[in-house]
Write a structure and sequence with these properties.
This protein is α/β, with parallel strands linked by helices. About 45% of the residues lie in helices and about 15% in strands. The chain has a 6-stranded mixed β-sheet, with helices on both faces. It has a 5-stranded mixed β-sheet with strand order 7-6-8-5-9, with helices on both faces. The longest helix is centred in the C-terminal third of the chain and has 22 residues.
Length: about 325
């Protein structure tokens, strides 16, 4: 067969219509190391939506650069519904703090649905001599630049919550980025860093066992998982409000019938009792939303974090 005939066959090869989607496994990219809340959001929903779609949904962890590596992978992927991203709060933060990105969040992606949300908490290693936010602030003022806070990378909610506290309290702390929230928590458990602002999903189990101490939660009100822990607003730092969210997005230009199918099936998944119970057991709130509502939510997040970044002069490059 000549190479010209082969190329001609490729050009006239039948295209699988969106109505037949999917006909092969789907890759769901998580832009962090395994073990974090974004990874949980993907793994709690992937098997279920796979069953409804009749195809395997494979979770693919691609950590690095505070979610940029994995996000860019999806941005440059084929817009055919077979490469998706479990986006999170960093999706709305990185456009606010990076002057240059290899992708444009609002142009290179299309929203499908928000899956869940979960508050964050300020937790410290038990050896830290602070039992309130005010005390950790006083400690930071007494030891400028010596206290450290870990994160899942530059531009992640854990990072921005720490930056918010620095600005609100007028303190100097050292940011220590990791390849995900779970590795950051591992460093805290080992005493390598002073504090982390993880999601309650990661924080509550460690607080319950006494391995870390919770000083505050970043939600508007106290949470059932940590009823005796005050909010950052109650502690006098209402500007620290980095609540985390997680949702499904696809490369721009993905066919509307495919997006519609994914939205409908994910809505069914989020109504399943066992899925809701698993999310709630991880201190999360089930959301579920239309593609249009999720797109508006992401735009509002970008606007909000842009204001925060400008107020605190927070830049990542």
């Amino acid at each position: 067969m000549s190479k010209y005939l082969f190329l001609l066959m490729l050009l006239v090869a039948p295209v699988v219509p969106a109505a037949d989607y999917p006909v092969r496994p789907i890759r769901l990219v998580v832009a962090y190391a395994p073990g974090g809340t974004t990874d949980f959001a993907a793994r709690v929903t992937a098997p279920k939506i796979g069953e409804l779609l009749g195809q395997t949904v494979v979770v693919d962890n691609r950590p690095g650069a505070g979610s940029i590596i994995g996000t860019d992978l999806v941005a440059k992927g084929a817009a055919d519904g077979y490469t998706l991203l479990m986006a999170d709060t960093a999706f709305g933060i990185v456009p606010a703090i990076y002057a240059k990105l290899p992708f444009n969040v609002q142009k290179d992606f299309v929203a499908i649905t928000q899956v869940m949300s979960v508050a964050n908490a300020l937790v410290v290693h038990p050896a830290v001599a602070a039992r309130t936010v005010r005390e950790v602030v006083d400690l930071a003022k007494a030891k400028p630049g010596q206290l450290t806070f870990g994160s899942g990378g530059v531009g992640t909610p854990l990072h921005m919550a720490g930056e918010q506290l620095k600005v609100a309290a007028g303190i100097n702390m050292l940011h220590v980025p990791h390849k995900g929230a779970a590795p950051a928590m591992t460093s805290l458990l080992g005493g390598q860093i002073t504090m982390v602002f993880p999601t309650l999903t990661l924080a509550v189990p460690q607080v319950k066992t006494g391995k870390v101490r919770a000083l505050a939660v970043t939600s508007a009100r106290r949470v059932p998982g940590l009823p005796d822990v005050s909010t950052t607003a109650e502690a006098g730092y209402s500007a620290v409000d980095a609540t985390s969210w997680f949702g499904l997005v696809a490369p721009a230009q993905t066919a509307k019938p495919i997006l519609g199918r994914l939205n409908v099936e994910m809505a069914k998944v989020l109504k399943l009792t066992d899925v809701r119970e698993r999310i709630e057991a991880q201190q999360g709130d089930v959301v579920g939303s239309s593609s249009n509502d999720f797109a508006k939510f992401i735009a509002a997040e970008i606007a909000n974090w842009t204001k925060v970044a400008r107020a605190g002069n927070i830049r990542a490059d």
